[in-house]
Write a structure and sequence with these properties.
Six copies of one chain form a homohexamer.
Chain A: E1 6-8, H1 16-25, H2 27-33, E2 45-46, E3 53-62, H3 68-74, E4 82-87, H4 98-107, E5 111-118, H5 121-127, E6 131-136, E7 148-149, E8 153-155, E9 158-160, E10 165-169, E11 172-176, H6 181-193, H7 195-203, H8 208-211, H9 215-220, E12 224-226
Parallel strand pairs in A: 3-4, 4-5, 5-6
Antiparallel strand pairs in A: 2-6, 3-7, 3-10, 8-9, 10-11
Helix pairs in contact in A: 1-6, 2-6
């Protein structure tokens, strides 16, 4: 599917305000609001706990052991963007570190999601530059082979089209197609609206069995209680 | 081995006081005190560092991608219980999150051990609800297929019978059969009693080689020193 | 390759002062300064974030499920040494814990790198005794079979000769052959010298594309921009 | 749960004739007949294709890197038995090879299921001694530490009680509790009885959608067809 | 990205004749002819050696532990199609076996590619129904939750759009977008045309160093020969 | 440890006749004869069953995703050599296929051991060119970055010095240092000499417990028999 050696300069980004609001909802809520789809695989972990960000995706496709295209994608970053880096084959090398983070931050990037490794994680943590990655590795890379920028990529099992909203927090990374961002936000907001009430009931000792009226369907499915 | 579709309401819990004292000993000591058995596999990790808890096991068997039975088990929780969730096949989905944690906490659960995934980990961390899991994942689950509650289960490679004492800390999770809890506690206490003295000696520079009288058995096994 | 059942008492350690300076450079810089070689596999992770140490390697070869030789190696530790523990076959058991850490610390060890498991991680963290390991596991080990001390070992995919400099931080673990330590330090220092300037430029918004003069080689490699 | 250092000589074996008939049904059918439970994890693979056997379980618990107890279990084998070897911690070493296979075969063992490694696989294949294992490895083991024989063990995620029926083929390994063997055989036979008719219909081009009357439940679940 | 609960009946299939010719080229050649892209991850393995097939993709998205949609997709199969089954979360259960294979074969399917498990592999092998899968497992599945048919899916890391050509052999699985099938075939044929000559030269002892004129670029890259 | 960009033309090969005899002993026997050391990790698997070869090692160090140096090493192959390919970071790409195999075979190579992927496995199998690899993958590689030839490498966890004897069969791969080859052969031959007698006794029903006089040491270790 991938084109190699091309940089698309003009992409249609999802609305930045919508992206920020989706970020505030968090990965789990957004994923539920889309109908329980859109998550990257759970091996994608944040390099430090507590970051929760979102933004339109700028994508980059890297060759194994080669981070040349990360310099190319830097130029395409607009403030608020999330960079999504995919690889043409599995690798855990350290494609990204302090200097690239400094550059990405200067361009206004909201964060990086990379299906590979990252290094200088102590510095990135102190810079508060959030990264979700498959690995942490000091191993450096060459700059010898072309990949692409702003082509659709598969990152950690999920298709990402440039401009899609990327939502990332301690639970992982979700991808919202640009044309579904607004609708997803509405569904997420509706979902959150009645969570407070549920939480209060459960905290007061009401059981989910009763709150969700599960006793009858459980019985019909054949559940047996034995004393 | 598993029965599907049953909930045992009456289980014989290990003594709660003994459980709490075993928890104070920690996983490594308890495992040693049992004769070096009883540990779940080391892929079980806490969602945050520093929690150390113990309690009688209430068990639940889940089907892949389905968390219905977690609502059923909630009703069976008594204060101080540890919930142990096993799966009928490998999965990393997020079976448990903020709402269920609120409910479990309201029931007095000491924590959760799950051979699958968990989500809302930032909230669970701030709630101080400890979870040991195989994965962290935002992916939601359906409520369509029955499992069981309070049947013996295999969780992360270890058999757990309802009522067994579960001990969990940063080193992992140990399972103490209910009928061996008291004896294990005595062995653990004895083990701890002389650790202080050993620690002091080692801190003062005495070698384990001398403290444990290892030099002769090492020589008999054929160890050679070369200058 | 391995000899079993021998302890070499006299090894040629890399210069301790050079080791400490290499430690200050960090794993990524040292690895780059050696020409992008010398890293252990990225599954080696610190038990707590933020430690950054270095020292000459004292090596120990362990048999699976057996930590006897860790007591033997303790006697060979000199202040500032890094202990490197390899295994004759893959294992995640907990070979090292509080008591051995107390002993190693009393001998002046700078830290431990082990291609296996470690336990008592909460105590080790509070002791500030840094460990890089493949796993965390409460599982104990026996003392029945000989390994060796101060033989060359392969640890996490990397050959370590006794006396080599081990550099470890949040990005992983690097190995610098003793006879290349001085030269590597010079290359690392040179590398760091001009990082500050680069960082400042990138922070000011200069692109790596321009700073590194990449535009022409990218064009020659065939990169196409599409509007 | 495990006792260490004991050999139970008298176990209640499931009926051998029933076991052989269960073996003829195969792993998948037996697992379905039990209500879709009882399978070891799918990493257990046969060392050669085409073997399909079953028999009562004789169990052995091994320590990591130590195969001493395989000699102890040999004496407990009766003709038709399946030996099930579990380990106290994960390992891929080669615990079993040509000589032990010769001994097991002389005792009449039907095969071996081992949650570890095996070697001499070319010879075992030519001997037609079937083994299901987690790994193939030439690495040898010591004889230094006790385990147990004929205690309940967890092997590849499944509890095996001595005497249970073990069914193994190219699809994996199933465990049938001894007291459910007869009932499981009846359910398996019933299941097989109408498979032939189904197979004929499907081969003739009838769709499962129609044969199983799925169209209406699919529509009720909300499935939409789009031209 | 995924829609849940829909079946697209009309898809634009790549030309069947072109697909068959791509199949004759094999996975490696096709992947090279596309510019070294388009491969599924290498964990996808054939259940038996020697099968080499190709055809337009009919896709199906399954929920974990649920194979309901495989019956739905059966109706959409046309002779020569390759069925590509993706999952909404990682699973190794046995979603496909003898009965479904009988049905798929009756519909004329060329084979199945599934990012999950398969069972009855001995029968499938004797039927010569080729399957590439992530796992072999006897574990059965339920029929409770909807997925989709003929939506774009990510299978083993690769985007598959319905109608794309799937090429599969002992080296793995390649995906050729329908609109690039003809061009890819031409490039693959050109590639094969001069392989015979190269093979003959190499077999005669000519070195690749000379045949590909590599000596000068190697020298320019700095390669040093040491006697 | 690795030098990059060098080719050592003169290496001291272990005696070819000794290598061939070690090959006839097989991996397990050779590994035992060395004192139970020298094995690569068990993820190294043959691409087809039944090959058993040995020869002096010619080594090559590859960069990830780059097979340039395989053409360089081809020139250094002498009849009977085993090529050992290591990688500077983990990768499963297909570095080696039909054309290189044709060239290696023309040079007289006995086989290839590669800590990465291989392709064209059906053709390699029909050519009877044996390969032990970590993966099978159709994914191609570039020719852009230097590695080295005939430097010491770590392959699948084992140090290989050029000229060492490599022994490979269905059980895996063993490495015998050149200067220990003769002695290892003698130990292996001695080991084989009395295997026939042991095999005959065990086949006749003698137990290992008696043949190896294990009953007393088992009793002394505390083993208890329970009726």
């Amino acid at each position: 599917m991938h084109e190699i050696g091309v940089v698309y300069r003009n992409i249609r980004r999802a609305d930045g305000g919508v992206a920020i609001k989706l970020g505030a909802c968090g990965t789990a809520t957004v994923h539920e609001a889309m109908g329980r789809v859109g998550l990257m695989k759970p091996y994608m972990r944040p390099i430090y706990a507590g970051a929760q960000v979102a933004g339109p995706a700028v994508t980059v496709l890297l060759q194994p052991g080669d981070n040349w295209m990360l310099h190319v994608v830097a130029e395409q970053i607009q403030p608020g963007d999330m960079v999504v880096a995919a690889l043409t084959s599995d690798s855990t090398d350290g494609y990204f570190g302090e200097l690239l983070a400094t550059s990405f931050a200067a361009r206004g990037a909201a964060g990086l999601v990379i299906d590979g490794g990252v290094r200088d994680v102590r510095v990135l943590t102190s810079m508060k530059f959030p990264v979700w990655s498959k690995a942490i590795s000091a191993r450096g890379t060459v700059k010898a082979t072309l990949g692409s920028v702003n082509v659709p990529v598969v990152c950690a099992g999920m298709l990402v089209t440039p401009g899609d909203v990327i939502v990332a927090d301690d639970d992982g990374v979700a991808v919202v197609p640009a044309d579904r961002a607004q609708k997803t936000l509405e569904a997420a907001a509706a979902r959150e609206a009645n969570e407070g009430e549920k939480r209060a009931k459960l905290a007061a000792g009401v059981l989910g069995l009763d709150m969700y009226n599960m006793r009858e369907p459980l019985q019909m499915a054949g559940l047996k209680y034995i004393d």
